[in-house]
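Attaching the record inline, Q. Sequence:
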Amino acid sequence: MTILIREADLIESVADALQFISYFHPMDYIRALGRAYEAEQAPAAKDAIAQILTNSRMCAEGHRPICQDTGIVTVFVKWGQNCQLESTRSLQAVIDEGVRRAYLFPENRLRASIVSPPIFGRVNTKDNTPSVVNVEMVPGDHVEVIVAAKGGGSENKSKFAMLNPSDSVVDWVLEQLPKMGAGWCPPGMLGIGIGGTAEQAMKLAKESLMGDIDMAELKQRGAVTDIEKLRIELHDKVNALGIGAQGLGGLATVLDVKIETWPTHAASLPIAMIPNCAATRHAHFTLDGSGPAFLETPNLDDWPKVEWKPSKESIRVDLDTLTPEVVASWKPGDRLLLNGKMLTGRDAAHKRIADMLAKGEELPVSFRGRTIYYVGPVDPVAGEVVGPAGPTTATRMDKFTGMMLDQGLLAMVGKAERGPVAIEAIKQAKSAYLMAVGGAAYLVSRAIKASKVVGFADLGMEAIYEFDVVDMPVTVAVDATGESVHQTGPLVWRRKIAEEKLLETV
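Structure, as predicted:
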């Protein structure tokens, strides 16, 4: 008997699932993050986790995106061989229509981040299509679908290698983790694919991230298979690196490690590693021909009772009267509350600024004495000043840092660490880099009280905005002397973990 899967049912199910995961974290992630918050002893990391948990509940209540980067859509389909798609369009086209409807939904419009072609032009497709669809034909009379929205910050940290068969997987993972920095917004998950061919290993790594977080349960019952033993070993040794939440140093870098394998050539050991960030987003549904699938709304009472508030040690900063002397007084790890007007700008804006300066053209706005925020916000809805507006990965702006500081910029705000080139430029200019928490986009947006475009309006979410902020929380990540908390913090906590065996409860 052939089961007909209606085009409209698949479209509606995909669209509903993508809206659902934009504001509801998977509950396995929330439970694991709640345990990590209780166990965390590093003050900066605990504060960051508190912001992520508070943001998560706010998004669940307000049905607004967890992160401003609402991701590239990846879909895994297991198509029962007794099922037929009732459509004249391809499966890719039908799924993309669901993506389009989800991302253009007026009550919770999601940020369109997909550009085509990927090189030479890179024009935004405006509706976040096309998605990346993986299809497997399997016996059965139903269709299983997993939809995920993967942010660029974590996707960009993906790693792949062709190891020798005798090489150590553990050694490779521990070598790669510090190189990934904090742009993937830990604490999250690591997905590891081992075997097959190069492309199969990458697919396995991505698909492994679709599973539930069950490390606590696995440790409680004990490992049975070699893969389970490897998962536990990697989980504990990665956390022992002390990288911590947002790379600030702490106990929880990963909440789980997932591993999928496939037989491979006798001469090969392909391995891929893909992290999932603090905005872990995926949902699973099944179609059997009876209609669209809808996901069950989680109970808000299941969220940990965590409500982030600024620490008493926080220093209020007036951006409108900011001076080099004030910037020089900040110390690494200081928590600041920013007030006043700040400019925004990220990849495309920085590239255009560089091109204009090279041609001797006048910039649309002066950066002298200003602070810039690396952000590409979600469009506002229902009277919002701005949609969720969390930070983007700052290292992508490293090569432009010297140029921007030469324009008189005093400080920069982004997420994760800065590289050597940027740190040297900051040190020479006696400026500062401030870190906002990735994965707390809705919480951050509440501090933005006014917003207007002041340059490059054609770039959309990558335009230069001027925000008026009130008590926007940031941490001094690189001070005027060039000291970086992303270098010092993990070193301190790596030593503490080694000396005191602090990971037993994580």
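The chain has a mean pLDDT of 96. Residues 43-62 form the longest helix (20 residues).

More tomorrow.
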